[in-house]
Design a protein that fits this description.
The protein is α/β, with parallel strands linked by helices. The protein contains seven helices and six strands; from the N terminus they run ββαααβαβαβαβα. About 30% of the residues lie in helices and about 15% in strands. A six-stranded mixed β-sheet has the order 2-1-3-6-4-5, with helices on one face.
Length: about 210
């Protein structure tokens, strides 16, 4: 697959770049994408939820009245879950939500997500650029010139650039990431991928 290379003014440079077919032109495997996104979202959960059950409540354990002969129901102590302020029945306990996904499935999911974006036409290649100091206005101008400002753009770089990261972080619905940090969730969450020209080879290495 060939794509035109744009400059930061949104103009074509007259050059094109060849995207590796094994990464950007495969048949998307939806189940692998679902598994990897589920794995990522599960890993974000803290799993620290906890509520007190009957045995953990502070309160008297005295039996409220005798078992029989009162005409009422049988009652234990005041911590009964049926009473206001009592313990909870089968309440949540701390747990780990992580699930395991094979490395081959993760790579297939990333390739499928990238191919889906390419097939939908939501992928732009731009010349490498950088700033001497953080400039949010300049970064926004680049995205506007590429006509992706309102399309939840994800800018992919060949390596981490603190200046570009700081220029991007205050823009709503806009994300930036080095190629080695690219994952299925971030790709699928983005509306359009803006890939720096030098990042293509890095993406290929990450997805192999």
């Amino acid at each position: 697959m060939k794509l035109e290379v744009y400059n930061i003014k949104g103009e074509t440079t007259g050059r094109s770049v060849e995207l590796p077919d094994e990464v950007f032109s495969i048949e998307p495997h939806e189940h692998s994408v679902w598994l990897d996104v589920k794995r990522y979202l599960n890993a974000q959960r803290q799993g620290t939820h906890k509520s007190k059950e009957r045995s953990e409540m502070s309160g008297s354990t005295r039996k409220l009245h005798r078992q029989k002969g009162t005409g009422g129901s049988r009652k234990g102590d005041i911590n009964n879950p049926l009473y206001r302020g009592g313990g909870r029945v089968f309440g949540p306990r701390p747990r780990n939500y992580d699930i395991q996904v094979n490395a081959k499935v993760k790579r297939l999911a990333r390739r499928s997500a990238l191919s889906a974006k390419a097939l939908a036409g939501n992928l732009i290649v731009v010349e490498d650029f950088s700033f001497e100091q953080p400039q949010t206005k300049a970064f926004k101008a680049i995205l506007q010139a590429l006509h992706v400002m309102d399309k939840k753009p994800l800018t992919v770089l060949s390596s981490y650039d603190k200046t570009l990261y700081m220029s991007c972080r205050n823009l709503p619905k806009t994300d930036i990431a080095p190629a080695q940090d690219l994952n299925t969730y971030r790709i699928m969450r983005a509306g359009t991928l803006v890939i720096a020209e030098s990042a293509i080879e890095k993406i290929k290495e990450v997805c192999e």
